Amino acid sequence: MDLKQLNAFIAIADLRSFSAAATKTGLSQPSLSRLLKQLETDMGVELIDRYHRPLDLTEAGAFFYDKISTILTEIDTVTSMTQRLSAPSSILNIGFVPSVLYGLLPEIIAMLKQSSPDIEVNLKDISSYQQIEALKSGEIDIGFGRFAHKDPWIQQILLRHERYVVALPKAHALAHIREQRLIDLANNRLILYHQTHLPIATTVSTSNAQSVKLTAHTKNNRTTNKQSTLNTPITEPLLHLFAQYGISPFMTTTVSDLQVALGLVAAGEGITLVPASLKTVRTEQISYQSLVHENVTSPIYLHTLKDFVHPSIPDLLSAIYHVYEQRGITYRQQKFM
């Protein structure tokens, strides 16, 4: 078997159609059919059920697809990394989550360009989860994210922890209380916006002092209450923060991103928690207040590939730590290996 045969099989398996796979690969249907047949002959196994419409994988084909997809992805990653190692780009492609852009990232980029005028920077708005694949494909060289990742291809360092603040409508009864407690916020509708969930769950029990109700967000944007069950896994980041104190909000609404969440807060539809760097957004309609809990924080991670560190990344780290020093931010200096 060879890569052409394997890629032909993957295209057919993905699209369940010879014609669609031909369009995707740029090969003719007879060529695709021949490559698939050669692969099946070499293996002595039928991988595709050609008599099913749309095409379907045989049991052996489904097993082979699951295993070979991972291998081909690794081959693509190694190929891309080898090419970049041989001829590093002069452009530093930086991925970031939107909340970081409202913080110190613009200041850091300005410092980087000031200290290293020859560096060309390209910024890309991309979620923490998507950054991992983007690093492997070469779409970005480094990423600022909010979540820890365990991936054999990736190394990461924790830059710092940023305190959460509560965002309330200006007309809210608690809007002028400068130090808030999570227990006092539990009777409000909490607006959730994270697309990435925590890899490790906390649990909440009905025996907690604050007996609570969880809600499921329905397609027509209504929320319905469900009594929490014993040891319900909590992986949503904001619910995780409440669960650490044995609390769960009375109501939740899930939206697509942080900006939508703040829009709903501004409209008086609920409250949310955001990193402190967001407290300059929509200040005419939203009151941002501190939380008394010191461990209610959002981490900021920097991650890149283990086996290829872009030559400009040490300069970026220097700029980050220089800005932290100017701002009086506590940090532990680290570097990528």
UniProtKB/TrEMBL annotation:
Residues 1-58 form the HTH lysR-type domain. InterPro entries: LysR_HTH_N, LysR_subst-bd, WH-like_DNA-bd_sf, WH_DNA-bd_sf. It comes from the Bacteria. Keywords: DNA-binding, Transcription, Transcription regulation. GO terms for cellular component: protein-DNA complex. One of its GO terms (molecular function) is DNA binding. Belongs to the LysR transcriptional regulatory family. This is LysR family transcriptional regulator. It comes from Psychrobacter fozii. The lineage of its organism: Bacteria, Pseudomonadati, Pseudomonadota, Gammaproteobacteria, Moraxellales.
